[in-house]
Write a structure and sequence with these properties.
By secondary structure, the chain is an alpha/beta fold. The chain contains eight helices and nine strands. The chain has a domain of about 230 residues: Rossmann fold (3-Layer(aba) Sandwich), CATH 3.40.50. The structure holds S-adenosylmethionine. The site of S-adenosylmethionine (SAM) has 22 residues, from helix 1.
Length: about 375
């Protein structure tokens, strides 16, 4: 078969790559990976419950102990007790890479009492109903009410800190009414929340991605985690820098590097279609549904591979995706970039460390939950950079 321009048509890969190791069992990661990836619990670590855990992007953030972009992200003092998601793909990928604590469940069917008590609750509740590229149905959508699962857990188990993640459009939809409602319901069960809108390139991600973190502290704890300081302000990592070493690799010497959608050429269509990335810029946002959009390499005449998308999301190369191209890209596109969530997790760890000692030393707890002003970090940007 030939394409219109006479070049031979490339064939999509038909066989699935097979991997001997996931991230957690790969001997190459043993020097720095978090002990919990192999099921080891550490007594002085904070415990975490992960809801809507996907393939584990945010979970890896809280664990730490991984390498990407030539940098080591040290282990953090958190152990994940359980990670729950309705998607078999997400749970399969999570188990392969981060350990057996992932379970496949519909969280609307699980009574909160059946979940373990943890110090920290994390959950990127589904965002399609709040996304600028989705139907914008908000609470009326099928998944628009799933944040209630977090509220019910908070009510039942009183975690010290809650980190919920979502798309920035949530803050803009209906002039912020949806976000206000969610925060109100979170706070009604005894928490105070701040909202951080973080632009991922400012934290070292070579990809344009903006995310909201809703960070809550139980009302009897004094203080608040600090919004992470940008690490790469004015010195963003470009797509060309992030992917340079993969350009010559076409096989599975680097996992998932042979997987990509075949597309004959990039178009110049204003963000739609196979839009080519620009080498001296961060990549366009990696989307969960990559069939119709923007996954073209900045230099080569092909779309980005699954590994390149994972790299642009800051997954370490040893974190493998065992399914077909689209199924893998769905997991990758849905994930919180591990290095972005890492900065949030570090801030939570610092807070918990100091909250514990100040409460112990000074007895700084609040009886009525009204003493600390709710700080709102809303820095809503006038433009959206979601693609
Ligand atoms: C935005 S993704 C979360 C990604 C994750 N935070 C990460 O960093 O990889 C939302 C997840 O919610 C899951 N989900 C949707 N409805 C669910 C339900 N009823 N019960 C459990 N999980 C659900 C989806 O399968 C999806 O993996």
């Amino acid at each position: 078969m030939r394409r219109k321009d006479g070049k031979p048509k490339r064939k999509a890969r038909r066989t699935l790559p097979e991997y001997d190791h996931g991230f957690g069992s790969n001997p190459a990661t043993s020097a720095y990976r978090h002990p919990n990836c192999t099921g080891v619990r550490t007594r002085d670590h904070w415990t975490v419950l992960s809801l809507f855990s996907g393939c584990g992007g945010l979970d890896l953030s809280f664990l730490g102990g991984f390498r990407v972009y030539g940098q080591t992200f040290e282990s953090l003092p958190f152990d994940i007790l359980e990670a729950l998601d309705i998607s078999e793909d997400a749970v399969g990928c999570h188990q392969l890479n981060l350990g057996s604590h992932a379970r496949c469940v519909d969280l609307t069917d699980v009574p909160p009492a059946a979940l373990p008590q943890a110090d920290v609750l994390i959950g990127g509740f589904p965002c399609q109903d709040f996304s600028s590229s989705g139907p914008k149905t908000g609470f009326a959508g099928d998944r628009g009410q799933l944040y209630r699962v977090l509220v019910e857990y908070m009510e039942a188990h009183r975690p010290r800190v809650v980190v919920a993640e979502n798309v920035p459009y949530l803050a803009r939809l209906r002039d912020g009414e949806y976000l206000e409602t969610i925060i109100r319901e979170f706070e009604q069960v005894g928490y105070h929340f701040d909202v951080w809108e973080l632009y991922a390139p400012d934290y070292g991600l070579p990809q344009s991605r903006r995310r909201l973190f809703l960070v809550g502290v139980r009302n009897d704890l004094a203080g608040y985690p600090r919004m992470p300081e940008p690490t790469h302000l004015g010195k963003h990592l470009t797509i060309a820098e992030a992917l340079a070493d993969l350009e010559e690799i076409t096989d599975e010497r680097v996992a998932n590097q042979s997987q990509y959608f075949v597309a004959s050429r990039a178009t110049s269509g204003g963000g739609q279609g196979d839009h080519r990335n620009l080498p001296d810029k961060v990549a366009y946002c990696i989307r969960a549904n990559a069939r119709g959009r923007i996954q073209f390499h900045h230099r080569l005449d092909r779309r980005l591979t699954v590994r390149e998308c994972a790299r642009l999301q800051s997954f370490p190369d040893e974190f493998v995706f065992p399914f077909t191209t689209q199924r893998n890209l769905t997991l990758i596109g849905n994930a919180v970039p591990p290095i972005l969530g890492y900065r949030v997790a570090q801030s939570v760890a610092d807070f918990l460390g100091s909250a514990q000692s100040s409460a112990a030393i000074h007895g700084e707890t609040r009886a009525d939950g009204t003493g600390v002003a709710i700080r709102r970090g809303y820095a809503i940007q006038p433009r959206l950079f979601e693609f």
